[in-house]
Amino acid sequence: MRATYSVNLSNVGAGPTSGTVTVTNIATQGLTLVAMTGTGWACVMNVCTRGDALAGGEAYPPINVTVEVTGNPGPVTNLFTVSGGGFPSYNGSYPATINYGPTVFGSFDTPADFWIGTGTVSLTGWALSSAGIASVWVWRDAIGNEPVAENGLVSIGPATIVPGIRPDVASAFPGYPGNNAGWGLQLLTNELPDSGNGVYHIHAIATDNDYRSVELAVKTLSADNSVAVAPFGTIDTPAPGATVSGSAYVNFGWELTPNPATVIPKDGSTIVVYIDNAPVGHPVYNNYRVDIATLFPGLQNSDGAVGYYVLDTTKLSNGLHTIAWLVTDSAGNLEGTGSRYFYVQN
User: Fold this and answer.
1) Which domain holds residue 255?
2) pLDDT tens-digit profile of 232-251?
């Protein structure tokens, strides 16, 4: 990608310049000089000169500098020096900052490409823009004749943008709005076409507040839930990144385990709620929900997959926390589900 900017020189003194004026461009990291041109200027490589006198308060025609933009995205300020004309030399930076690379950029960190597994998989990453990130949306390739959106993909849903969890990104890209935030979405592969048995191509697309979008990456996932033995499910509330309060906040979730013979005890005694990686109790389990029963018929707990735990958030500090459920079925299969960040504000 190429960018062009102008260097404008004026005589701030009362008297005219005398002798040759020399402007030297110093391309910083990420920029490679292509050309320098300007009316009345003699330019060779990164140096432009002229010998005509410039009256006090007047300006020369601008020098247009064209650079090739490479490297990592971010702000780059070009440098230059001015000497001669009967005035002391001046070293400085051009006041315009060139933003190079895509306007929106970021990363689709997890899972690794060509992930193979069953049940839930965490999709995570980060995205930045000088205009601020408005959303990160997760999509997939269509299977067969599925209806698609205008972009030719099938929507999975919006990822949650959670502030305060990516100090590494903030350190690498200072000055960007929201640069300490990460995005995430928990994908339950059992809900994908063919009951989560097949190969799926997952797209993460970030959009900034100026409505510009960039596809961060495409990941290939291979799921084979037909041979899964571990429990699966998710937490419904709190939503990832949600802010909660009060002494009786209800944490809802649901859990199932595959056939043929395993079951999750209906008293919820083998489902443990963890807050900030510490166990806090068991949910009230064995509650019916029509969508779960319809989507997963025939499993041992299909008609009672929902549980809830009443959380006293006043015992937690205000700020960022984590929550997850750890589930064990009657065959001893263990699985963590629903892990996410949430905020407390009382």
Assistant:
1) 229-346
2) 999 999 998 899 999 999 99
